[in-house]
Amino acid sequence: MARIDVKKTYKLYIGGQFPRSESGRSYVVNDAKGNLMANAAQASRKDARDAVIAARQAFGGWSSKTAYNRSQVIYRIAEVLEGRRDQFVAELRASEGVTAAKANTFVDAAIDRLVWYAGWADKITRWSAPPTRSRGPTSTSPRPSRPASSQSSPRAVRSRARSVSSRRSSSPATPAS
Fold first, then answer.
1. Which residues pair with residue 26 across a beta bridge?
2. How far apart are alpha carbons 69 and 27 in whole angstroms?
């Protein structure tokens, strides 16, 4: 008796789970030379909507973390990427057909970019605008607020500092009781 060939079901990754795509279809991903690299699930519009909903639900948890914690997470991603650098270089070379030097440049840029974002994550939060319910890149959002200390020009800050120091020197000293 002949065995029935059991086909593998390729799945998506949405909201921390691996659901099957609505269509149940998959497609072949080839490298630059036409060799099989992977099979990927073909997502439908509903699958894309589900992914967007999951991302919106996850946003609250991510944004409730402190800026310092988000910075640590981003830096950890950079560390993992650095630790698996050879794998990413090999994948880039196979999928894109680029030279080793170019693939190394791409991986270096990705690591440097993550480290840069990790470094700034806890420093620019005071300038970030409040979350808006935008519907895409064409929506208008409020201009990012600036910290009170940088709203004035340096000249105005210096003149205020002079006036405060002159008031202190002209006021009579009161003995501490």
1. 41
2. 38
108 contacts: CB under 8 Å, gap ≥ 6: none
Is 0.90 surpassed by the pTM of this model?
Answer: no
d(CA 154, CA 162): 12
- Look up residue 96 and give its two tokens: 């894109």
Beta bridge pairs of residue 36: 30
Phi-psi region of 153 (alpha: psi -120 to 50; beta: other; left: phi over 0): beta
132-165 tens-digit pLDDT = 555 544 444 444 444 444 444 445 545 555 554 4
Closest to 19 measured CA to CA, from 2, 44, 38: 44
Question: Mapped to the 3 state alphabet, what secondary structure does the chain carry?
Answer: CCCCCCCCCCECCECCECCECCCCCEEEEECCCCCEEEEEECCCHHHHHHHHHHHHHHHHHHHHCCHHHHHHHHHHHHHHHHHCHHHHHHHHHHHHCCCHHHHHHHHHHHHHHHHHHHHHHCCCHHHCCCCCCCCCCCCCCCCCCCCHHHCCCHHHHHHHHHHHHHHHHHCCCCCCC
Three-state DSSP at 16 gives coil
Write out the H or E segment, with its range, that includes residue 36. Answer: strand 36-41
